[in-house]
Amino acid sequence: MAPHPPSAGHYLRSDSGGSEAPMLAEGPGPGPAPGPDGGPGAVRGQRRRRRCGPLWGSVAVMAILAVQIASTTGLFVYFTMAISKLKSQAPGSAEELRCLQMLNQQPEGSSLEELSSSQTCLKLASTIKAYVATVTENILRRSAVKEARRSYFNTSEGQVPPKTARKPSAHLTLRPQSLTQDGTWERFGNLSQSCRHAITRWEHSTLHSHLQNITYRDGRLRVEQPGKYYVYSQIYFRYRSAGAQDSGPQLVQCIQWQPPHSQPILLLKGVGTKCWAPEADYGLHALYQGGLFELKAGDELFVSVSSLAIDYNDAAASYFGAFRLDL
């Protein structure tokens, strides 16, 4: 039997490739209205949307490019105006840059007369000097504040810095002496006749006295740390004018230095001869002396006098001390 021709409005299937996609048959057919089941009206809507999609994408890309170009142009104009403003505010910047280049090209140890002849270079040097001074002052101020805070917190928390970090120093005040002591005692060595009385009693822990990194024992100061020490002493003599057993009012004070296993060596000697009025009950005179000496660890210092007629009632009048100087 011969195959029947397809009627109008039917679909044909393609036999090539085994595709089952429906194809419209040739010939006129009715034009049904678009419906929800995906008829011909739906197909025409999809084609319209496909034609609009690339157009909107091109418009968006062009808008983004326009914004970028406008931003770049604005930044360029802004930086150009800023640079022009800086140039107008600092007309000598080119000259200062030339000074810095010349200074950089100068060989080490060469003369700077060429730079000093330019007023711009001198002004630049003054500006740099002032800036360095300001920075240095700020650094020192911050360091001082930091050190003060550290010291405050250590003190408030009961932490006392170690004594070894402090400079050695001592200040002793006089105590009443025994009038029977003799300066020729073996432990003080051979003393001269004019300074034969060694002072063996000093206060070292009162309001007027202190010890720091120096030891004291039986009238002697013992050096613990070597260095240059300023050694000083003052004795306030109180001589009785009538009935004095001494041959005369000769006032002598000596500061003795005794290295380990050695005899005392005279460091300083102060002498005074006074004549007081016959009707005066007492004659008062103070002798002071001091000097700088290089001392080693283990060295000892003590004071000897010509007479023990001394005023013992004033702690601020007679004293003996030493402190190290970092020179």
Automatic annotation (TrEMBL):
Compartments, as annotated in UniProt: Cell membrane; Secreted
Domain of life: Eukaryota
Listed GO CC annotations: extracellular space; plasma membrane
GO molecular function: cytokine activity; metal ion binding; tumor necrosis factor receptor binding
Keywords per UniProt: Apoptosis, Cell membrane, Cytokine, Membrane, Metal-binding, Phosphoprotein, Secreted, Signal-anchor, Transmembrane, Transmembrane helix, Zinc
SMART domains: TNF
The keyword Zinc is annotated on this UniProt entry: yes
Residue span(s) of domain THD: 168-325
Principal location: membrane
Entries under Pfam families matching the protein: TNF
Transmembrane segments: 55-79
PROSITE patterns xrefs: THD_2 (PS50049)
Entry-linked SUPFAM superfamilies: TNF-like
Binding site residues for Zn(2+): C275
Any Gene Ontology biological process: immune response
Membrane topology: Single-pass type II membrane protein
Quaternary data: Homotrimer. One TNFSF10 homotrimer interacts with three TNFSF10A mononers. One TNFSF10 homotrimer interacts with three TNFSF10B mononers.
Annotated family: Belongs to the tumor necrosis factor family.
Record function comment: Cytokine that binds to TNFRSF10A/TRAILR1, TNFRSF10B/TRAILR2, TNFRSF10C/TRAILR3, TNFRSF10D/TRAILR4 and possibly also to TNFRSF11B/OPG. Induces apoptosis. Its activity may be modulated by binding to the decoy receptors TNFRSF10C/TRAILR3, TNFRSF10D/TRAILR4 and TNFRSF11B/OPG that cannot induce apoptosis.
Protein name: Tumor necrosis factor ligand superfamily member 10
Organism: Lepidothrix coronata
Lineage: Eukaryota, Metazoa, Chordata, Craniata, Vertebrata
Gene of this entry: LOC108497975
